[in-house]
Write a structure and sequence with these properties.
By secondary structure, the chain is mainly α. The chain is 74% helix and 0% strand. It has helices spanning 11-36, 54-60, 64-96, 102-110, 117-128, 137-162, 165-173, 178-206, 210-215, 223-233, 237-269. It starts with 10 loop residues before the first helix and ends with a helix.
């Protein structure tokens, strides 16, 4: 009789089944929100009474939602630009710093990614209040820059560490000045990482609600804060329309991040 084959447990199908269940657990709540944004009714109910774009017209047609969206974009763009400048300069400094306290300084700079955001919001409030910068765009941009800088430092510092130092030495040996070496050698090498950090920084600013609750005034209400207020006052399908817009926006940012990260890895390999 032929020897019985050893039984092999189907680990691979079980693995893919587990991944599918986890993915479904994460995506089903999101998938449940999107159809509600097309409801013709005034309440969040299933089954839908009908299909309509009325809530998208309400959100994008003007009023508080469009003002909140413009505030989020305005603050996010300025916070991103400042955080990219500060984060890139900080990464260049940390790369060249060999002192014993360099790791402690790096930890301090990355602490906004670790410390609970409510503590950062309270600290920013007590720092900005004596300067009369609360309830202002300037104060909100400063507070968002604080939480956005670490998202720039991480990819840029990684790109600098992986960048071949012989390139800068070769440029210097050819007579290039430090400024020319940075503009023509270092900057092109870390540009994809800077772009990736800028997208992360913008996403951190755009999605913030805790800092906006403490720092922003009535004229600086961002989109997440307006959604938070809407959850307390009246839950209408307009909230799901805004949530759908943010889902599409965040997904687009994520896809751009993935493209830039692949480009960064391919650039560093070369």
């Amino acid at each position: 009789m032929p020897a019985m084959k050893r039984f092999k447990f189907p680990w691979k199908p079980l693995y893919w089944l587990l991944c599918a269940l986890i993915l479904g657990f994460l995506l089903v709540p999101i998938a449940a929100i999107i159809p509600l944004s097309f409801s013709s009714g005034s309440f969040l109910t299933y089954p839908l009474p009908g299909l309509s774009l009325r809530w998208y017209h309400e959100v994008l047609g003007g009023g508080k939602w469009l003002r909140a969206l413009s505030n989020s974009l305005y603050v996010g763009v300025f916070a991103t630009v400042i955080s990219v400048l500060l984060g890139t300069l900080a990464s260049l400094g940390l790369m060249r710093l060999n002192a014993w306290w360099a790791d402690a300084l790096k930890l301090v700079m990355l602490s906004p990614m670790i410390v609970p955001v409510i503590l950062i919001a309270v600290a920013c409030y007590f720092f900005l209040a004596p300067l009369s910068l609360t309830s202002s765009y300037t104060g909100l941009i400063i507070a968002h820059t604080v939480i956005a800088v670490p998202f720039v430092v991480v990819p840029v510092l990684t790109a600098l560490e992986l960048l071949d130092p012989n390139l800068a030495r070769a440029a210097a040996a050819c007579g290039a000045t430090p400024r020319t070496t940075f503009l023509r050698v270092t900057l092109p090498g870390i540009m994809p990482a800077m772009a990736s950090g800028a997208l992360f920084a913008f996403a951190a600013s755009f999605d913030d609600v805790v800092i906006a609750l403490l720092i922003a005034g009535p004229d600086q209400r961002t989109l997440p804060r307006e959604m938070f207020s809407g959850l307390r006052d009246s839950m209408t399908p307009a909230l799901t329309a805004v949530a759908t817009i943010m889902i599409v926006f965040s997904t687009t940012l994520f896809m751009l991040m993935q493209m830039l990260q692949r480009r960064t890895r391919s650039t560093l390999k070369k």
